[in-house]
């Protein structure tokens, strides 16, 4: 990941989530009768497609874990994107995906210092709230006549 000159924090949405069974390896052995037996090793994998309003989307595949159970389309997803373009117009690599709603990571290898990433995520979310404060509902008590 260090070979890319530029990186950026990316926030988008989960577009699709589905499970597949992937062939991860084969073993060839011989049974008692001298016949060749091929054993396929398969693994259930989570496929997570994320994207944003610019049209950028990417698909990440990782081993399926119980913690992935609640991930659904529409949820916020965050990751780092890497590029050799200063404007990040051509994304060359992405990191693992973080789902802040459940504090869940989707990856087959942890590239990031996750505690630092979640701190940056929180700081950016707070700065966003400061720039765009939510409308507050003010309740008033009705007078009796």
Biggest sheet character? 5 strands, antiparallel
Question: Total number of β-strand segments?
Answer: 7
Query: First CA to last CA: what distance?
Result: 70 Å
Average predicted confidence as pLDDT:
86
Strand order of the largest sheet: 3-2-1-4-5
**Spans with pLDDT under 50 lasting ≥5 residues?**
135-143
Q: What percent of residues adopt helix (DSSP H or I)?
A: 10-25%
**Percent strand:** 35-45%
Notable features of this structure?
145 residues, mainly beta, five-stranded antiparallel β-sheet, two-stranded antiparallel sheet, 1 helix, 7 strands, 12% helix, disordered C terminus
Brief rundown of the structure:
The chain is mainly beta and 145 residues long.
Task: Please characterize this protein's 3D structure.
The chain is mainly β. It has one domain. It has one helix and seven strands. The chain has one helix at residues 114-131, and strands at residues 6-30, 36-51, 57-63, 76-83, 93-94, 97-99, 104-106. Strands 3-2-1-4-5 form a five-stranded antiparallel β-sheet, with no helix packed on it. A two-stranded antiparallel sheet has the order 6-7. Mean pLDDT is 86; it is low at 135-143.
């Amino acid at each position: 990941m260090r070979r890319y000159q530029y990186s950026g924090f990316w926030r988008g949405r989960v577009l699709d989530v589905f499970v597949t069974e992937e062939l991860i390896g084969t073993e060839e052995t011989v049974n008692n009768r001298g016949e060749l037996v091929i054993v396929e090793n398969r693994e259930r994998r989570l496929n997570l497609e994320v994207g944003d309003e610019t049209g950028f989307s990417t698909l990440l595949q990782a081993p399926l874990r119980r913690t992935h159970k609640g991930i659904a389309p529409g949820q916020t997803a965050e990751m780092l994107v890497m590029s050799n373009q200063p404007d990040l117009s051509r994304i060359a690599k992405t990191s693992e995906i973080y789902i802040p709603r459940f504090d869940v990571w989707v990856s087959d290898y942890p590239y990031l210092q996750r505690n630092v990433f979640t701190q940056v995520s929180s700081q950016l979310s707070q700065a966003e709230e400061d720039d765009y404060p939510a409308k507050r509902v003010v309740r008033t008590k009705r007078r009796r006549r």
